[in-house]
Amino acid sequence: MKVTSSEFVISAVGPKQYPEDGLHEIALVGRSNVGKSSLLNKMMNRKGLARISSRPGKTQTLNYFRVNQMLYFVDFPGYGYAKVAKTIKEQWGKMIEGYLKNREQLRFVIQLVDIRHAPSKDDVAMYDWCKQIGIPTVIVATKGDKIARGRWLQHTKIIRQTLNMRGGDTIIVFSSETGQGKDELWGEIMRRLRESNESAQEAGAAASVPAATSSESE
């Protein structure tokens, strides 16, 4: 997809600050330092729009980025960083849980994992959490340029097995350095949004059909 506009909109600390324009939202989750900011910058063609922190765990809000006046990327706080205070982690947990369970505009989650390592316990817990809630998930294996292409299949197989990935969930190898996976990820995003739009239209059409009267049904 051609990105013609991208902008940072708001760092939200709760539902009252979430945008109200009804655009599709795609949440990005992953461990601190997994490369969420780098992926966002590459996907939006904006160097430095999503700031890359030198202090892992610094993001403590839901950061909204609007693309082509069509969708939002919602950047979640990185999880799994030991030096973040327990009380802050608990606040993140409540905010994230509320968003994932209640946000109507959320279409699916992009979960980032480092292709070089098996998913951590936190990665597995996040994936399972999304499945329990019923949220579709795209797994993006970041830092694809850090290992030989010939080892991608082996490493993605480990990721699939460790997460116990469900049918219908996709895994994409990505590199913010080379752009590997960028077009594939945009293709997956657009495919899922089209399906979401079609489902909404079908549901609307079904709801508009009047129920048959008892005499008609006889």
From TrEMBL:
Ranges where the EngB-type G domain occurs: 22-195
CDD domains per UniProt: YihA_EngB
GO molecular function: GTP binding; metal ion binding
Function according to Swiss-Prot or TrEMBL: Necessary for normal cell division and for the maintenance of normal septation.
Extent of the signal sequence: none
PROSITE patterns, sorted: G_ENGB
Region (Disordered): 196-218
GO terms under biological process: division septum assembly
Cofactor(s) for this UniProt protein: Mg(2+)
Lineage: Bacteria, Bacillati, Bacillota, Bacilli, Bacillales
InterPro entries in alphabetical order: G_ENGB_dom, GTP-bd, GTP-bd_ribosome_bio_YsxC, P-loop_NTPase
Domain of life: Bacteria
Similarity-based family: Belongs to the TRAFAC class TrmE-Era-EngA-EngB-Septin-like GTPase superfamily. EngB GTPase family.
Biased composition (Low complexity): 198-218
GO cellular-component term (any): cytosol
UniProt protein name: Probable GTP-binding protein EngB
Keywords assigned by UniProt, alphabetized: Cell cycle, Cell division, GTP-binding, Magnesium, Metal-binding, Nucleotide-binding, Septation
Gene3D superfamilies found in the cross-reference section: P-loop containing nucleotide triphosphate hydrolases
